[in-house]
Design goal:
heterodimer; A: 137 residues; mainly alpha; 82% helix
């Protein structure tokens, strides 16, 4: 959510490179570590809960959930690496006068990066649905 | 184990409630983070104050409605007569919490009008953080069901 909100704010045309750098910096310094800690907790306590609730680790919905969690993080991580290069480019533009740049705007709107970021978010919604419906349980 | 034995008809309202609560926590955290960042980065305080206001209007309010509507729906199904203590904790956080959110919204609007400077801009992230703590308490009550 945090990363999505700052990412949407960065998409607006006419943003100065320093503004893009600020927004992507907030994502990198705050949202990304929060996602990492949250994923670790989700994984560790999720597996513990599977044991406590008496489900099997090989149940289809558990295996699907673990695969989706790994996939979501991999896709989000790949999108994040593209955004990191965009932030580096924004940093260069700040040093050159901080004027709005069509090239930077195009990089912020990179469809692969956006698909990765929002796709990983949708995967988490699907994960929540599986946790509640438990198909096959 | 309760989750394992609940009727299928409870799944959709529970999903909407948990999704709304998750989005509410995330959007409120965004308001707090952008608000604190506005204090630290005076050169971008106007931008960050606008992000706070938009996140509040387009994120916090819809997700609060989703969370609360889902709670009412699942509450009616699961506890038609009397609600247990852990559900009451959720209502205590969501309803007086809504008043706090209205105050946050008014202050966020004032802060955006003043380009992210002034007392309103200082108060918004502090109040949003207090609401996050309250949501954390409700989260524990909903998950651990202490009573």
């Amino acid at each position: 959510m945090i990363a999505g909100a700052f990412n949407i704010a960065a998409l607006r045309s006419g943003r100065r490179p320093s503004e893009i750098l600020l927004l992507f910096g907030l994502i990198r310094r705050i949202a990304v570590p929060a996602i990492g800690v949250g994923t670790l907790f989700l994984f560790v306590f999720g597996l513990w809960l599977v044991h406590e609730a008496g489900y099997g680790y090989s149940d289809g919905w558990i295996v699907t959930s673990i695969i989706l969690l790994i996939l979501g993080n991999a896709i989000g991580g790949y999108a994040g690496s593209r955004d990191r290069r965009t932030a580096e480019y924004a940093q260069q533009l700040v040093a050159q006068g901080d004027a709005p740049s069509a090239e930077l705007h195009a990089r912020v709107r990179d469809p692969i990066s956006l698909a990765g970021s929002y796709g990983s978010g949708l995967i988490l919604v699907a994960l929540l649905a599986i946790m509640i419906w438990k198909p096959g349980a | 184990m309760l989750a394992a034995i609940r009727p299928d008809s409870w799944n959709l309202p529970l999903f909407l409630h948990v999704l709304g609560a998750t989005l509410l926590f995330g959007t409120t955290a965004t308001v707090a983070i952008a608000g604190f960042a506005a204090r630290a980065r005076r050169d971008h305080s106007a931008l960050l104050a606008r992000i706070v206001l938009r996140t509040f209007l387009l994120g916090v309010i819809p997700s609060w409605i989703l969370m609360r509507a889902g709670a009412a729906w699942i509450g009616d199904k699961e506890f038609p007569d009397k609600t247990p203590g852990w559900v009451d904790v959720g209502f205590i956080v969501s309803e007086p919490g809504a008043i706090l959110l209205v105050i946050v919204g008014i202050l966020a609007w004032l802060a955006a009008r003043k380009q992210g400077v002034g007392r309103a801009a200082v108060a918004v992230p502090v109040l949003a953080s207090i609401y996050l703590v309250a949501l954390g308490i409700a989260w524990f009550a909903m998950s651990a069901k202490p009573s």
